[in-house]
Amino acid sequence: MLSGNRYRRRDSFRSAKEEVLVVCGGQTEELYFKAFNRIFHPSLGTISIVTAVEAKNPMQIVEFAIKALQQKDSCNAVWCVFDKDDFPDFDEEIDNARRDGIGTAFSNQAFEVWFINHFRLLDSPLHRNKHKDELIKLLKFPYD
For residue 22, with 0-12 CB atoms within 10 Å meaning exposed, 13-18 middle and 19 or more buried, which class applies? Predict the structure, then answer.
């Protein structure tokens, strides 16, 4: 019979913490990931959030992430987060990000879908024109 203490972790064991850089394409995404820092920190490690305010498309967000990464001292992972929208270079920029070791996360149609899914599962299409009304109903305060 195996002893229960035999396979227990030692008290001095420390789990590795990651530092993740998240480059967002807008303010909604920034607010979402800042909530991660408040709710899950320090269990997730450090999440550095940078918003590419001037970026208008995935290519500019990926370029912004590459520059931001060059300015960071250490980082375990980099992610670009943006809306899919109808960008003609979308698939190409996903491939470019991967080649540079950058992960991508995107929403289709808008990032607000991620917020809504925390309250209820969207199992049918909800056009982006309805997202604001749905969030106001769910949050019970004004959302813009």
Answer: buried
Residues contacting residue 19 through CB under 8 Å, at least 6 positions apart: 45, 46, 47, 48, 74, 75, 76
Residue that the structure tokens 């309250």 belong to: 119
Report residue 105's pLDDT band, with 50, 70 and 90 as the boundaries.
confident
Asked if the bond preceding 58 is cis, omega within 30° of 0, the reply is no
95 pLDDT band, cuts 50/70/90, is very high
Amino acid at the residue 134: E
Q: What is the domain class of 19-108 according to CATH?
A: alpha beta
What are the sequence ranges of the domains in the chain?
19-108
- The enclosing H or E element of 82 equals strand 77-83
Is the Cβ–Cβ distance between 46 and 69 less than 8 Å?
A: no
Question: In what order do the strands lie in the sheet containing 19-24?
Answer: 46-51, 19-24, 77-83, 103-107
